[in-house]
Amino acid sequence: FFRFLIMFFSKKLQKFENIKHCFFSRKRGFSEGNYESLNCGLESADKKENVLKNLELVSKKIGCKKELLITLNQKHTNEVICFNSDANVKNKLTGDAIVSKVKNVGISILTADCASIFFYDPKNKIVGCSHVGWKGAFNGIIKNTVEKFNELNSNNNDLVAVVGPCINKKNYKVKTDLFKKFVDQNKKNEIFFEKISNENYVFDLRGYINKEISNLNIKNIENIEKDTFSEKDFFYSYRRSCLNKEQDYGRCISVILMT
Question: Does residue 6 contact residue 23 with C-beta atoms inside 8 Å?
Fold first, then answer.
């Protein structure tokens, strides 16, 4: 019995026959209640057997063995894991990005407002994925991911970068301290903030991410323009759950795999 999953794809990545990828929505899984329904976050307080069933569904859809669907123990760090041989491939390592040369391994990112980014170097056959919220972005997770590609002889001109669904600027309210943090790092970061009251700003996470990618001389960029906060039928949202005083929230999964 195969559920008809709701999936979002990159037009750029769909051109490569050896790449399978998907930004999965929250639809058509096994979880219930606040977690309805394709919750892939084992860290959530959801029933573990439901999450495992969801992950198995995802692995079937993406075309890898369930034990080769790799998720990270994400901590909003700038740590990048590298799989350059089968022997390196392990599940649940702590970090917020994976760069891989290994075929038939689904590398994935879990999100609930943060962005997942896919990278692909078609020349050298290397894939990557990063988990990017404000902390990861601020601390250089994107730069570190691309540097890992460079260590594997990848040239930034060859890279394709796809930024997945994330929270839209209008729904991402932050306080003055975050504004100050970014502006102290670089005055030019002011453009990603808009003041909405004395103490509050809205922050353009997607805009900031795109600037970070462009600064690395990556020209081939695509955005899946979906707002995780307002599109509640399709996405989990940490911010929306907080606003609704829900105890916990599910996580959507994004997976890329090279055959």
Answer: no
Give residue 20's identity as a one-letter amino acid code. K
User: Against a cut of 0.90, is the pTM above it?
Assistant: yes
d(CA 19, CA 13): 7
Please give the helix or strand (H or E) that residue 59 lies within, else none.
helix 48-62
Q: For residue 37, say if its preceding peptide bond is cis, omega within 30 degrees of 0.
A: yes
Distance CA 210, CA 220 (A): 11
Closest-CA residue to 163 (of 133, 185, 198, 189): 133
| 112-171 pLDDT, tens digit each | 999 999 999 999 999 999 999 999 999 999 999 999 999 999 999 999 999 999 999 999
End-to-end CA distance of the chain: 25
